[in-house]
Structure prediction request, 403 residues.
Amino acid sequence: MTLVLLDNDNTQVVRRVPQGEARREATLRDMIADHPSMLPVHDLDPSYGRLITVTKELSIPGVGFVDILLMDEHGRLVVVECKLWRNPQARREVVGQILDYAREISRFGYEDLQRQVSIATRRPGNVLHTLAREAGGTLSEADFVDRVTRDLTAGRFLLLVVGDGIAEGTRRIGEYLRDQPGLAFNFGLIEMAEYRLPGTNGAHQIIMQPRVLAQTAVIERHVIRSEVPGIAIDPVVTLPNAPSTATSATSQPTDAGIRWRAFVDRFLAETTFDDPGQPPARSGGTGWMRVPLPDGFYVNVYRSSGQNRIGAEVRFPGTEGAVAFSALGEERRAIDAEFSAQNIGGLEWIAGDVPALRVTAPYGPPGDEASEVAQRQWMGRAANQFVNSLRPRLQRLGQDLAA
Prediction:
């Protein structure tokens, strides 16, 4: 990508600084903190006012440091993470990292946020309100505190990942966002391209070109939908016959639930996926876990105490599910061979109103440590194989259907 400067009969080509070489992350962070208006926030949400830098390196206890915290004069928060996009691992981690920040900040009361801002800025008092008033805000201190408190409670933030060249496929970014219920955030990926215009005496003028590569918008019930062509952020779907996770706010966990939670924690700590872009599993309820796949599908990994069996299953509900199941069936021989090579049992192809792929195995005495270790190992291999076999095929199918 280049810029062309036209000046009467003179044409000057200005080439972009290569990705990953333009600036160190701290330099990019400092530049944005000094010039927050350079971010195209109003392209993402026109209701934001004038952007103010609250602080850099805001400590979120137990999580890390937010690169930049911004707000407008009404107290609406913007969390910014900067990344030079040198490798896929960095791209994946920074998205998960900013979501961790959002989740933790949503647990803050106003006093918690005020405390951390005062520590970072080394300024006493209600620094947020003071900055807002200095920027032209007209809310009284009480109204300002109430406004920010409501946003904190709802998890209502603008999350920005800013890099010098974002090459990560937005479909994969979407998979991280799809499993974030309960936070009313907007999310944007912003590419900050740098150009250097040569001048006299070896000096050069820096030209920055920010552009929005992908964004999300919050709709009813905090389900995220796509707002930019090319990004696949699907609604959260309740799978047919999936165990219910709804519990009363006053209910206490059962002994079985506590044991399963410990089992899940160890599973998450021990299980790795061959695919470096695969999001982690999460608990779905007592006796089952969910591993996300593209286009709203999931691997349900479960333990059935009534049948003394463990299993992993992908269901394909609805018209789109039937299309995906049929497309996978065209590669059935290859998929069966991939599963057979992993010593996890034969793959079942289940036709019917809700087609499914399933693999199961018996398990030993409940509560036996050696049995539980074997269960976690089998479940990890089964989930990994479903990801290896189905994830690239579902991604390819989605791309073919979108073409």
Remarks:
- The CA atoms of residues 267 and 373 lie 9 Å apart.
- The mean pLDDT is 79.
- The chain has eleven helices and 15 strands.
- The radius of gyration is 25 Å.
